[in-house]
């Protein structure tokens, strides 16, 4: 089985490193300096157990997404594509996925935010598109990819059917790589549940500059996070995904506690001066809320504040 990882950053690095322990043929699609480093030095992965694994560059084929057309021998050669790049790269990564996939192949987005799977489906067709989420925790620094917390990967089809063909093969290989895959029989609900947690944790921790556990320690931060989560749940319900049976408060407390020492991905972006995914999180909730008639003032405020931080840092 040949599988491509599109966007070898934090989560992409975890997937590339974990799958390197299987017999999967791997293609790593990165850009610029990151692509050059992968091709020359391979991948350094710091595992949750404290070990350091070095995956040599010969273990995978590296492609620079900015270097022009894909090599001819890679076109139509992949059974699966996993998209892990930043939200603003989704259109170009969807195009690359289309070029890489064979006729029976499948692509899945494991990105934060809304609309990525729909972008893929528009390009590839719904039969070759999987929705996905992951709760693995990771960050990337000068010393490599740091896999800081094991979680799971959830994939599913939008018609809620069972995995077959390439999708079933992908699930088996993810399991072999100890990435704890689960097949969702309602992937829209799964994605929405992840979005609820993201709009609660990411912007509040990024604005305050704190680790996730601070939400449980500072009542004012908790209020902001929980309110944003409640708004997103109301938007989901009005959009056709009923989440009313979920214990929102309990779920948020559990996740914030389990990831108490983590710096969320958005805070990492803010600290590094990178573009955040706030438009695809709070911004998307606000836009969808407007279309279904649900007010989202807390998400709108968080969206504006994170965008203000980005604008301010870009002017420095």
Give a structural overview.
With 316 residues, this protein is an alpha/beta fold. It folds into two domains: 2-185, NAD(P)-binding Rossmann-like Domain (Rossmann fold, 3-Layer(aba) Sandwich), CATH 3.40.50.720; 189-315, N-(1-d-carboxylethyl)-l-norvaline Dehydrogenase, domain 2 (Orthogonal Bundle), CATH 1.10.1040. The chain contains twelve helices and twelve strands. The strands form two sheets. It has an eight-stranded mixed beta sheet with strand order 5-2-1-6-7-8-11-12, sandwiched between helices. A four-stranded mixed beta sheet has the order 4-3-10-9. Helix 3 (90-100) packs parallel to helix 4, helix 6 (187-208) crosses helix 10 (265-272) and helix 8 (219-238) packs across helix 11 (279-292). The chain is globular and about 55 Å long.
């Amino acid at each position: 089985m040949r599988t491509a990882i599109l966007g070898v950053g934090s989560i992409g690095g975890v997937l590339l490193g974990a799958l390197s322990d299987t017999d999967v043929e791997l293609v790593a699609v990165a850009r610029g300096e990151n692509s050059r480093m992968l091709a020359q030095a391979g991948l350094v992965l710091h595992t949750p157990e404290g070990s350091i694994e070095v995956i040599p560059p010969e273990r995978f084929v590296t492609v620079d997404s900015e270097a022009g057309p894909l090599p001819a021998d890679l076109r139509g050669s992949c059974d699966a594509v996993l998209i892990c790049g930043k939200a603003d790269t989704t259109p170009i990564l969807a195009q690359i996925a289309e070029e890489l996939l064979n006729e029976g192949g499948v692509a899945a987005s494991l990105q934060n935010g809304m609309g990525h799977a729909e972008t893929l489906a528009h390009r590839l067709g719904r039969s070759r598109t999987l929705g996905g989420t992951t709760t693995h925790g990771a960050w990337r620094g000068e010393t490599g990819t740091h896999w800081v917390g094991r979680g799971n990967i959830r994939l599913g089809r939008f018609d809620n059917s069972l995995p077959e063909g390439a999708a079933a093969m992908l699930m088996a290989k993810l399991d072999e790589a100890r990435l704890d895959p689960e097949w969702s029989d309602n992937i829209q609900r799964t994605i929405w549940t992840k979005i609820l947690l993201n709009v609660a944790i990411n912007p509040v921790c990024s604005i305050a500059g704190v680790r996730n556990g601070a939400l449980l320690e500072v009542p004012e931060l908790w209020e902001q996070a929980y309110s944003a989560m409640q708004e997103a749940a109301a938007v989901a319900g009005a959009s056709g995904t009923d989440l009313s049976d979920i214990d929102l408060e309990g779920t948020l407390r559990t996740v914030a506690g389990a990831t108490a020492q983590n710096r969320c991905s958005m805070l990492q972006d803010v600290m590094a001066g990178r573009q955040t995914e706030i438009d695809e999180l709070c911004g998307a909730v606000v836009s969808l809320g407007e279309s279904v008639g649900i007010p989202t003032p807390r998400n709108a405020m968080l969206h504006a504040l994170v965008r203000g931080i980005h604008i301010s840092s870009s002017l420095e």
